Backbone:
């Protein structure tokens, strides 16, 4: 099958980093070729006319969309599926509407609240404290708000991959107006809009989803046990991208849970599927959670285009779920295509059962 591999250069990324900056070294491209596909890389920028002309030359049967940023912002990545919608070329991953709906973490949180799904309270620079008090039938009241001011974590509204997130991003305890001022300062410093989310100092879970139903892959929990007392337990920028950092070396993920966690794991899986349906996700995605000391899960982020490198949490979840990396890539391709156009590939191994 002719596959156009769409990617962005590091220059297009706000952190000057891109997962698939060089297609010749991309594990996704390598997997596609191993599966027997004919792959043509297409570099994407905000010059959409040029991207469209290139696609007309390639004439792909499907595009594998790994564009994460354009023009220096993750929010602009939605321009590529918008373009693909006008060409009627099938593409992998989430549809335009889902990517647009989750591009702003604030918009995503607003939708979660409207639908009664638990997400932490937050502070915006201009609107003050926003409290998730919209009748959450399955949310345990937060005692921290009853007894005083909580801690918050400063987050970029549009940028992902823990952009500008380090220990200094965890602030407070402080009143909402003080937090709002810190949000304004971080926004001015970076030149990008920020907000502050109530910091849930608990366990962090990542749930990866795959396919059409979808299949919920085995949940992972981040191990912060090596962090010294007082160090914020977060997966910041260093933990994700700086392999020489303490955080990178000391935030392993685990997939083994005691029997006592079984109800919580079922709850997290149900919430992940609810998010999938609510935002109309497709192909693959990752939902990030925090679980507080009372056992209440809180939805942090909806990742419509998560990292899928072999070292990523998504790839680790594939392996835990009995799927090879190549099988996962093939499943992502298949989710983008009508059933009747599934390719027949002699080299392909049988897929694991859902």
Residues:
């Amino acid at each position: 099958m002719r596959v156009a591999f769409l990617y962005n250069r590091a220059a297009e990324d706000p952190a000057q980093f891109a997962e698939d900056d060089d297609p010749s070294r991309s594990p996704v491209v390598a997997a596609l070729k191993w599966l027997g596909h004919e792959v043509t890389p297409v570099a994407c920028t905000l010059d959409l006319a040029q991207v469209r002309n290139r696609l007309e030359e390639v004439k792909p049967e499907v595009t594998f969309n790994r564009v994460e940023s354009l023009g220096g912002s993750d929010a602009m990545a939605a321009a590529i599926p918008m373009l693909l919608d006008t060409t009627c070329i099938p593409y992998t991953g989430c549809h335009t509407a889902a990517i647009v709906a989750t591009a702003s973490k604030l918009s995503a949180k607003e939708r979660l609240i409207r639908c009664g799904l638990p997400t932490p309270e937050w502070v915006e620079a201009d609107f003050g404290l926003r409290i998730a008090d919209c009748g959450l039938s399955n949310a345990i009241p937060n005692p921290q708000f009853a007894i005083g001011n909580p801690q918050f974590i400063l987050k970029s509204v549009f940028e992902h991959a823990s952009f500008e997130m380090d220990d200094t991003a965890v602030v407070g305890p402080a009143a909402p107006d003080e937090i709002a001022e810190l949000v304004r300062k971080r926004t001015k410093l970076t030149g990008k809009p920020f907000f502050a989310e109530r910091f849930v100092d608990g366990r962090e879970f990542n749930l990866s989803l795959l396919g059409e139903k979808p299949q919920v892959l085995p949940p992972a929990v981040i191990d912060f046990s090596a962090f010294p007392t007082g160090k914020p337990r977060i997966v910041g920028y260093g933990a994700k991208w700086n392999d020489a950092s303490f955080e990178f070396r000391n935030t392993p993920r685990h997939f083994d849970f005691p029997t006592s966690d079984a109800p919580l794991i079922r709850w997290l899986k149900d919430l992940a599927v609810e998010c999938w349906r609510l935002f109309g996700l497709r192909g693959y995605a990752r939902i990030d959670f925090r679980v507080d000391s009372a056992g209440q899960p809180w939805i942090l982020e909806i990742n419509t285009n998560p990292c899928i490198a072999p070292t990523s949490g998504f790839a680790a979840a594939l392996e835990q779920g009995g799927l090879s990396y190549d099988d996962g890539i093939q499943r992502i391709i298949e989710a983008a295509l009508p059933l009747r156009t599934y390719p027949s590939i002699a080299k392909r191994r049988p897929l694991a059962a859902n």
User: Anything to note?
Assistant: Residues 62 and 89 are 6 Å apart (CA to CA). Confidence is low (pLDDT under 50) at residues 132-147, 340-354. DSSP finds twelve helices and 14 strands in the chain. The domain at 2-93 is CATH 3.40.50 (Rossmann fold).
